[in-house]
């Protein structure tokens, strides 16, 4: 199978974040970046699919120069080649624009399967995968928990629906899969793999190469501001015997918290 | 890469990532993740039980950590900065683990690569890189530590064989080793006749008893190599070894790794002490809010940062292959070991009574670092190397 996996470089998940002076985003200066967690599982899923069906894995990443580290890590883990859409201009772009650009970069490659992380750790739009499927005219499955190749060129996919329902479906290719974290044990890149990554084929494409003008990729979403979650230490101890305490709790959840 | 503890990373204190290549940070981050996920959960038990996690050797090999800065022969072929970063992350886990990898790579694979015949390289290096053959390095003897030229191990030529007799001690990995790089005087009392041999440990006349009752490097196998007329083929000699300098060249490789490695041990202690200080409440406030604790943390972070700068400079010199001298390694090995030992003790103190439990890392590192301070050239030996360089006077 010809497999594509999408990776995004995001701030390390344990990074100590500071909000930028204009309040519109975090200060990225001095932060360490790494492959977004869902995408890491996606790379592993893509490699396992290749190992069971044959074929090759291409990694695609959109971002500035810092994206090269994530690309090299995916190559070191076992991906065969890479496409780097090299631009700093789209880091805050909306999901539909990102998907449009990614689709333009890969549409002529004829991929059978596109594996994307369910959502990125930073913006978390949860929408690039489905939008990419739209642009590539593929079907898509979100919140994928497992996948395996079955007869007839199909993939058997377990995925999560609303209300904790799990569905197993056999989907034909081509298909875009949005994978969830924790679905596999992600391998370590070997040191030899890291040293060899630079010699694997890598193509860089700019927005100009892909035929986009600035107006074509103008974001339709503007980030107005970000804030840390408010810290709250309010706690109320409910007194009384268990039955009475439970009644009081239910009443408070209905009337004060309004969650029931 | 951050520490996973949602606190400031010492990498950021000196913005080291800005001076590393993608490959170098990936080597560091990959080794770091493996250590945290695969090694750290089990090391307190191994330390308590005085065992080494041999079951992890295939994973270490799979990562490519054995002989990682050797080119070819199944090795990763990394530069020396990447190699150093890997050593640092291994010793964040435990000095015993870093010692295992150092001995295999710097003290066994390196001499075969540097001083061995092509046939010896082909025979041993790929299997050692794959972790299928484990090596140990036999130089120190009961009566010859800082003065290895006083060794009494002898190799006597007998037809197409050498017959080796002698005793080596404090040998990391010897109880698990398939082969030993043994240093012996060839039919002479002259230190210039010291040569290296590859001795398979299944030969008749050789035993490698384990050394027990250690209070340091407990999660590491240490033993002796006792040789009583061990017969090895004449081609077991490392043909390019020429006197004690060849053995010291191996030690210099290992010392470079140690200079990096102990930073990992110090960082493990610091990370733990910082996290603890932010949680531990004394007199209604976290102890991190106390000036005395802050001074200890700041002093520790400063010393680690300076040590990190030093090894990065050292690594760049080594990679450039010029202006790199043994006294550079002595300077940094000496400084960094003392620094790490000091920080382990301070960190142990910040942990209060909890600090004496092996459930915390500080005392394990503190005890380990007593060995690292002494092996591969004691602190005093490195002082004398530097003293000789500065004054021109030999004070050994």
Can you walk through the features of this model?
The complex is a heterodimer of chains A (260) and B (396). The model of chain A has no long low-confidence stretch (mean pLDDT 93). Chain A has 6 helices and 11 strands. Helices cover 27% and strands 25% of the residues of chain A. Chain A has 260 residues and is α/β, with parallel strands linked by helices. Chain A has a 9-stranded mixed sheet, sandwiched between helices. Chain A has a two-stranded antiparallel sheet with strand order 2-3. In chain A, strand 7 and strand 8 form a beta hairpin. With 396 residues, chain B is of the alpha+beta class. Chain B has 3 domains: 123 residues, Acyl-CoA dehydrogenase/oxidase, N-terminal domain (Butyryl-Coa Dehydrogenase, subunit A, domain 1); 109 residues, Butyryl-CoA Dehydrogenase, subunit A, domain 2; 147 residues, Butyryl-CoA Dehydrogenase, subunit A, domain 3 (Up-down Bundle), CATH 1.20.140.10. In chain B, helix 5 crosses helix 8, helix 6 packs antiparallel against helix 8 and helix 10 packs across helix 12. The longest helix of chain B is centred in the middle third of the chain and has 36 residues. The radius of gyration of chain B is 21 Å and the shape is globular. The N terminus of chain B is likely disordered. Chains A and B meet through helix 2 and helix 5 of A and helix 2 of B.
Please bin the fraction of helical residues of chain A.
25-40%
Taking Cα atoms only, what radius of gyration of chain B do you get, to the nearest Å? 21 Å
Write down the overall geometry of chain A: globular
- Give the beta-strand count of chain B: 9
CATH architecture term of chain A: 3-Layer(aba) Sandwich
How large is the count of helical segments of chain B? Answer: 12
CATH superfamily of the largest domain in chain B: Butyryl-CoA Dehydrogenase, subunit A, domain 3
Report the end-to-end length of chain B measured between terminal Cα atoms: 43 Å
On the 0-100 scale, what is the average pLDDT of chain A? Answer: 93
Q: Domain count of chain A, please report it.
A: 1
CATH architecture group name of the largest domain in chain B:
Up-down Bundle
Q: Regions of chain B with pLDDT < 50 over 5+ consecutive residues?
A: 1-5
How much is the radius of gyration of chain A in Å? 21 Å
Main sheet specs of chain B: 7 strands, mixed
The largest contact between protein chains, plus residue counts on each side, is: A-B, 23 and 34 residues
Euclidean distance between termini CA atoms of chain A: 48 Å
CATH topology of chain A: Rossmann fold
What is the name of the CATH superfamily of chain A?
HUPs
- Shape annotation of chain B: globular
- Give, in order, the helices and strands of chain A: EEEHEHEHEHEEEEHEH
């Amino acid at each position: 199978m010809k497999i594509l996996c999408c990776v995004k470089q995001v701030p390390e998940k344990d990074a100590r974040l500071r909000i930028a002076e204009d309040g519109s985003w975090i200060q990225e200066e001095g932060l360490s970046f790494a492959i977004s967690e869902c995408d890491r599982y996606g790379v592993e899923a893509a490699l396992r699919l290749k190992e069971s069906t044959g074929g090759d894995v291409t990694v695609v990443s959109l971002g500035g120069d810092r994206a090269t580290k994530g690309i090299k890590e995916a190559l070191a883990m076992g991906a065969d080649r890479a496409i780097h859409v090299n631009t700093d201009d789209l880091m805050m772009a909306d999901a539909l624009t990102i998907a449009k650009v990614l689709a333009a970069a890969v549409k002529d490659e004829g991929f059978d399967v596109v594996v994307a992380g369910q959502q990125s750790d930073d913006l978390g739009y949860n929408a690039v995968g489905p939008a990419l499927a739209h642009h590539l005219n593929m079907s898509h499955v979100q919140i994928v928990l497992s996948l395996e190749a079955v007869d007839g060129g199909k993939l058997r996919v377990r995925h999560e629906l609303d209300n904790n329902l799990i569905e197993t479906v056999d989907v034909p290719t081509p298909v875009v899969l949005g994978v969830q974290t924790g679905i596999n044990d992600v391998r370590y890149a070997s040191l030899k793999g890291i040293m060899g990554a630079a010699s694997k084929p890598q193509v860089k494409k700019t927005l100009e190469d892909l035929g986009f003008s600035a107006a074509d990729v103008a974001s339709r979403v503007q980030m107005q501001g970000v804030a840390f979650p408010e810290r709250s230490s309010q706690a109320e101890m409910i007194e009384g015997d268990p039955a009475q305490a439970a009644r009081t709790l239910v009443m408070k959840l209905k009337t004060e918290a309004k969650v029931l | 890469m951050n520490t996973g503890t949602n606190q400031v990373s010492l990498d950021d204190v000196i913005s080291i990532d800005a001076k590393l290549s993608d490959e170098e940070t990936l080597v560091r981050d990959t080794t770091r993740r493996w250590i945290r996920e695969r090694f750290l959960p089990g090391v307190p038990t191994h330390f308590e039980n005085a065992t080494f996690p041999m079951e992890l050797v295939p994973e270490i090999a799979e990562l490519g950590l054995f002989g990682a800065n050797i080119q070819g022969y199944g090795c990763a072929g990394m530069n020396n900065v990447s190699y150093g970063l890997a050593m640092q992350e291994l010793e964040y886990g435990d000095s015993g683990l870093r010692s295992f990898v150092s001995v295999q790579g710097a003290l066994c694979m390196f001499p075969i690569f540097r001083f061995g015949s092509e046939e010896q390289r082909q025979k041993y290096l790929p299997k050692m890189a794959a972790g299928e053959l484990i090596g140990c390095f036999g130089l120190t003897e009961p009566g010859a530590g800082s003065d290895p030229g006083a060794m009494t191990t002898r190799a006597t030529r007998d037809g197409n064989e050498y017959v080796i007799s002698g005793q080596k001690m404090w040998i990391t990995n010897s109880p698990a080793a398939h082969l030993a790089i043994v240093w012996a005087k060839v039919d002479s009392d002259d230190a210039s006749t010291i040569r290296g041999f590859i001795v398979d440990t299944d030969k008749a006349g050789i035993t490698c008893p384990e050394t027990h009752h250690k209070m340091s490097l407990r999660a590491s196998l240490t033993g002796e190599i006792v040789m009583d007329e061990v017969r090895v083929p004449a081609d077991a000699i490392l043909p390019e070894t020429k006197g004690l300098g060849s053995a010291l060249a191996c030690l210099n490789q290992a010392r470079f790794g140690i200079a990096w490695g102990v930073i990992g041990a110090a960082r493990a202690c610091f990370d733990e002490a910082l996290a603890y200080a932010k949680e531990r409440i004394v007199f209604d406030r976290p102890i991190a809010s106390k000036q005395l604790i802050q001074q200890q943390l700041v002093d520790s972070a400063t010393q680690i940062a300076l040590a990190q700068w030093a090894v990065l400079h050292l690594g760049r010199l080594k990679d450039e292959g010029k202006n790199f001298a043994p006294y550079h390694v002595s300077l940094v090995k000496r400084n960094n070991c003392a620094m790490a030992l000091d920080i382990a003790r301070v960190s142990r103190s910040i942990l209060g009574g909890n600090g004496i439990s092996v459930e915390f890392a500080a005392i394990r590192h503190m005890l380990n670092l007593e060995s690292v301070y002494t092996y591969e050239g004691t602190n005093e030996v490195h002082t004398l190397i530097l003293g000789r360089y500065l004054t021109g006077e030999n004070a050994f």
